[in-house]
Specification:
CATH architecture of the largest domain: 3-Layer(aba) Sandwich
CATH superfamily of the largest domain: P-loop containing nucleotide triphosphate hydrolases
Bound molecules: guanosine-5',3'-tetraphosphate
Number of domains: 2
Shape: elongated
Largest sheet: 8 strands, mixed
Structural class: alpha/beta
Number of helices: 11
Helix content: 40-55%
Order of helices and strands: HEHEHEHEHEEEEHHHHHH
CATH class of the largest domain: Alpha Beta
CATH topology of the largest domain: Rossmann fold
Distance between the termini: 39 Å
Number of strands: 8
């Protein structure tokens, strides 16, 4: 989904999210495991205030596992519990239910002590477009028993969906916009396919990809495109020109750029994490 964000859209998205926050116990903030920083909305903390909060790193099947570990540590160090999921493969309902119960522990115990009946935990998923909100929601929700139906507290037209007997999810995710804080953030969002509009020239994004893979995953480039050592001495631009010829695209390096970008997005160059989190940063 391509969304053009204007100030009016942002204000409306915040308003909707703020309304929904009143009826949930916890926020599941989805970030793309390949870009755990660039796919976060910088306003999120301000919007959700002190609501309990779990970071769910989606698409972890595409990300560098070592980096994902570092990021989870880094989030935790900042006081944010985090987990990584592959919504296309494994069932994560149990894990997510358990973590959520852990996070809310005190609150739930407190309610019981006050004599309140046990009730399901209610959560909302939030994140930028394409981060995997609907995929995860579908994965977490038992479709046969999905709709819990109208309940007090839910904004008109919205539904609680049953994930487990202990967890219910609001059917309407909160949509946040990415922030193009700097050029690299924009290029990282474009390279992963988080944004698919033409805001960024494909050759710029392809050059960013070449530079990045040369630095962090050189072997992946060499293997995928059968490069030699001599090719590695070329500048990024000359390497892109070489690949263009190799793809049989003459001097159409825009087309070649798009090919390279698609390869990266599809994981043809292996798993990668664009936003780097060094183990040293976690000492
Ligand atoms: P959204 O609701 O947040 O907008 O995202 P949505 O669930 O529609 O997911 C966007 C794309 O990301 C989908 O691909 C979906 O299959 C993919 N995706 C979501 N979670 C994961 C995951 O954990 N691993 C992998 N590998 N992919 C995931 P799509 O429909 O094919 O669209 P696209 O690939 O053309 O973007």
């Amino acid at each position: 989904a391509t969304i053009q964000w204007f100030p009016g859209h942002m204000a409306k998205a915040i308003r909707q999210l703020e309304e929904n926050l009143h009826v949930v116990d916890i926020v599941f903030e989805l970030v793309d495991a390949r870009i755990p920083q660039s796919s976060r909305n910088p306003e999120i903390e301000r919007i959700i205030k002190d609501k309990p909060h779990l970071i769910i790193m989606t698409k972890s099947d595409l990300a560098d596992p070592e980096q994902t570990k570092n990021w989870i540590k880094s989030f935790k160090k900042g006081g944010l519990p985090a987990i990584a999921v592959d919504s296309k493969a494994n069932i994560t309902t149990k894990t997510i239910t358990h973590i959520t119960q852990d996070i809310l522990g005190d609150k739930l115990v407190h309610e019981e002590q006050k004599g309140l009946k046990e009730r399901p935990i209610r959560a909302i998923t939030v994140g930028i477009p394409n981060v995997g909100k609907s995929t995860l929601l579908n994965r977490l929700v038992n479709k046969r028993a999905a709709q819990v139906g109208d309940r007090p507290g839910v904004t008109k037209g919205q539904q609680w969906l049953r994930s487990s007997s202990k967890l219910q999810l609001l059917d309407t995710p909160g949509i946040l916009w990415p922030k193009f804080e700097d050029e690299e953030t924009g290029q990282a969002l474009a390279l992963t396919g988080a944004i698919k509009d033409q805001r960024f020239a494909s050759d710029d994004v392809a050059l960013y990809a070449l530079k990045f893979f040369r630095r962090y995953y050189p072997q992946a480039l060499i293997t995928r495109y059968k490069l030699s050592e001599a090719d590695f001495a070329l500048s990024d631009v000359d390497l892109l020109l070489k690949l263009t010829k190799q793809f049989g695209m003459k001097d159409d390096y825009e087309r070649a750029s798009n090919r390279l970008i698609l390869d990266v997005r599809k994981g043809k160059l292996g798993r990668y994490t664009l936003n780097r989190m060094g183990a040293d940063d976690l000492e």
